[in-house]
Amino acid sequence: MTRESAISRATRHFDEGRFIADLARRVAIPTESQRPEGRPHLEAYLREEMAVAFQAMGFEVDILPNPVEGAGPILLAERIEDPALPTLLGYGHGDVVRGLEGQWREGRSPWVLDQAGDRWYGRGCADNKAQHSINMAAMETVIAERGRLGFNARFMLETGEEMGSPGLREFCERHRDRLKADVLIASDGPRLSAQKPTLYLGSRGVMNLNFTLDLREGAHHSGNWGGLLANPGIVLAHALASIVTRDGKVLVPGLLPDAIPDSIREVLVDCAPRPEPGEPSIDEGWGEPGLTTAEKLYAWNTFEVLAYRTGNPDNPVNAIPGRATATCQVRFVAGCDPRTFVPVLRAHLDAHGYPMIEVTPARASFMQATRMDPKDPWVQWAAESMERTLGTRPAILPNIGGSLPNDCFAEVLGLPTLWVPHSYAGCSQHAPDEHVLGPILREGLQMMTGLFWDLGEKGAIRLGHA
């Protein structure tokens, strides 16, 4: 009954195929939260799969309604061994994006876990079913080896993250007492690279925006009206060009942070993103001049055009369209207030001669940015545990470039937040051919088993958060 024997047990759990069998069963449930047809499968994933797994580990389980009508349910699992022990809160999401059947290579089905070398393909395997399955299996391993966790555990699984986690913040506020803990340890998103274990402490926020220019009803023949009618596609393109340059530099100061703190620059020195084979190469010269690639990705704001439509792109005709729309996105770091973005853009468009362009939030909600101090004792404890298991120091990121509902845990529940991702940037998340890498899954099981084993040691209480 040692740390080493627990990690060996976790390794066998992967090598003997038991983890993959669990993952295959979970991938087979088509939990698409973006389609109404997926709602029954969200219920089934929690009730028939995850509740059963947690109960087998000695957890008490409740499946509760979402505060937002029509949004997916949320599972709460709890194992209290001793109120005097520190308490862990875990998190994951069981929903996935659309499966995109028929678009996967080699005829793969998104709902069948399929191996090709080190890759395991299937919708949701990277985001987020393998990730929360690893953390659950690691806790199960510690219980089997030690006979107990050695700490208290609460685990929350939501089913709406791919829709922006509607209702999650209200859920955390409503069930604050039931979610009381000393630390959040969870997994989502990618490592810095496939070879580099990573610990991150928050996420950039995200706000999607719709730009609409509606000049007239219908389209009009370009031979009869060309040169006489304003083209909304051209006007909107120039308006967007006044917001961001052709090289990706944001031109509206109100969309940007004031500066990058020195403490954040220091921790990012050794965190340059390095694309793996098969991933896109970084475009040098794109983005904010004077920043490193790590600072651009983890410490600065970006403005992206996600979609642009004018006329009929699928069947163009010789006519000047009457309307143009663009869906854009601001990714932002902690310290920025996204509630100011629409007023800032409204003032900018008016000042540059575009009062006719409407700008509105694309969603009623947005994900807030969070960032934890890399010098927090919990961070050093986790990094040391991960290094002890794998023999290499993890990359420590103040936040990832993507977005998560981490504000629910950091702000509403007031928790230190530690995220240990078990995927990589080239996983084709949200696209056809989503996959996970076997070596990362195996390492993830080892790391999390070591982390949970160490949390169960009495020394964990001395971190000062219990």
How does the SSE layout of this entry go?
Elements (H helix, E strand, L loop, with lengths): L2 H13 L2 H10 L11 H18 L3 E5 L9 E6 L7 E7 L20 E3 L2 E3 L3 H22 L5 E7 L9 H7 L8 E4 L11 E3 L4 E10 L5 E2 H4 L6 H10 L20 H6 L25 H6 L3 E9 L8 E2 L2 E10 L8 H11 L6 E4 L15 H14 L4 E3 L9 H6 L4 E3 L15 E3 H18 L11
Parallel strand pairs: 3-6, 3-7, 7-16, 8-15
Antiparallel strand pairs: 1-2, 2-6, 4-5, 5-17, 9-13, 9-14, 10-12, 11-13
Helix pairs in contact: 1-4, 1-13, 2-4, 4-13, 11-13
Shape: globular
Order of helices and strands: HHHEEEEEHEHEEEEHHHHEEEHEHEHEEH
Task: Record the strand order, biggest sheet.
Answer: 1-2-6-3-7-16
Stretches where pLDDT is under 50 for at least 5 consecutive residues are none
Going by CATH, what is the homologous superfamily of the largest domain? Zn peptidases
CATH class wording of the largest domain: Alpha Beta
Please summarize the sheet with the most strands: 6 strands, mixed
Summed over residues and divided by their number, the pLDDT gives a mean of: 95
Descriptive report:
This protein has helices at 3-15, 18-27, 39-56, 125-146, 168-174, 222-225, 232-241, 262-267, 293-298, 341-351, 377-390, 407-412, 438-455, and strands at residues 60-64, 74-79, 87-93, 114-116, 119-121, 152-158, 183-186, 198-200, 205-214, 220-221, 302-310, 319-320, 323-332, 358-361, 395-397, 417-419, 435-437. By secondary structure, it is α/β, with parallel strands linked by helices. It has a six-stranded mixed beta sheet, with helices on one face. Helix 2 packs across helix 4. It is globular, with a radius of gyration of 24 Å.
